[in-house]
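Q: I have two molecules that I believe assemble together. Could you output structure tokens for the complex as a whole instead of separate predictions?
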Amino acid sequence: MKKFLTVLSILGLLYILPLVAGTTFDQGVIPEGDNGSGLLRGLAHFWEYTGFANATIGNLLMIAIGLFFIYLAIKFHYEPLLLIPIGTGILLGNIPFQEGIGVGIYESGSVLNYLYFGVTQGIYPPLIFLGIGAMTDFSSLISNPRLMLLGAAAQIGIFATFVGAIALGFEIHEAGAISIIGGADGPTAIFASAKLAPQLIGSIAIAAYSYMALVPVIQPPIMRLMITKKERLIRMKPPRAVSKLEKILFPIIALLLTTFISPTAMPLLGMLFFGNILKESGVTDRLAETARTKMIDIVTILLGVTVGASTQANVFLTSGSIKIFMLGAASFIVATAGGLLFAKIMNLFLSKNNKINPLIGAAGVSAVPDSARVVQMEGIKSDSSNHLLMHAMAPNVSGVIGSAVAAGIMMSFLS
Amino acid sequence: MNNSPTNLAVEWSEIWTITGVGYSVVFFALVLLVFLFQSLPKVLNLGVRKRIREVRDRMGPKEVEVQEEEKYLSGEISAAIALSISLYLKEQHDEESGIITIKRVARTYSPWSSKIYGINNNM
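A: Yes, here they are, computed for all two components at once.
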């Protein structure tokens, strides 16, 4: 009875309001109509503002994709920390609304637009790199520096995608931005596309993060195809213990060297190594702790949601996005194959006792730490006591450095 | 997107240059890091080596060899040491007397909890 009365009074108010407000209200808010009462016109006006009236097939399709991302994250645990914010962002970005009410991500002054500023201006990716630096242990890389070459080899994915994108008809700056998907590094891809082709950020980020989440699905078949059973059984020497001084010197030297070579990658590499200095110096534990926990979490939330929301159907659903997705898949395959092939080539020149397990070449794509985990899983399938995780982390983190350097080079060529 | 055939034809030489130079620079940067970090331990150990050489000159080569071997600790040895320390620390227990007899609990009389002073007891 109470509910009935509430509904009745609301309806009554809706009916009375136009009468009370008179002509001014009628002209200002309620659209003109030839027939029908104020109530009906009010309801019609309200209906026009709802998502139901403004929904397009594109919106519904994107909402389905967003729900699929959330499903993948919950059901299969594919990069849940990324797919949940991105999936929810896709839902937010594709809630249909009437243009001009100041809620859309592309509408100047809206809340989402303010948050998206961090993406378009390339603010979030360096902050993510700061957190990554503060949580990365480079000791496996320092103990066996030659494994860094695998991280370089896998960057073939970036340059092959660049050629592929040009062949598919993309403009050179767009091709440069798309190519970074091949680095399998979300923040780097977003940073490069913010500088080179801001109109493609949504598609590039979604492609990069989707394929990063699908690393456990994409990489194993290529690994099985290219690496023989005998090679998969190769046991590597345990990494040597690394001194504290070496750990402190690594980020400082790498920061200076890589940013001198590619200054355009300075925001990314600078923050990555700064984060690592915080971690390894041993005197800034509080800062390192904040960078690798709360700060990276906050930025991941903002980045994920805004990147997801940027996939508004009218902007995102284009033939270009489909091509970007195709190129993204190809680039991941090429990058993985490049790393594996280079590991096999390296083995030709290494002594019998120093051979490397070529599976770790797949970790050269910088999807940290997923690709290293995939290497570990594939390794123990062949020999349950052969743990490759620590070895795979070396090409994995060098892949991060390599892809940032490659992005910097791309930007310096094309900016 | 640029689909003009003229533009595509003009751009290809540039594309290959960017691809070739870009990939080479990535390799160069990382090769430089490899080189640096392969030589870094040698540079850091220069002082140690110098001292070893001095000791060798004084004591003879055989004894110094042993000292050099002791310096290297493989990952497995480190793990074993860490495990044993962890187990030792976890299993540390305070000393107990070993006497397991039950002590009789002696309760001193208190009228505050006595039933005879309850409100239902009429004296």
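A: One point stands out. The CA atoms of residues 46 and 370 of chain A lie 48 Å apart.
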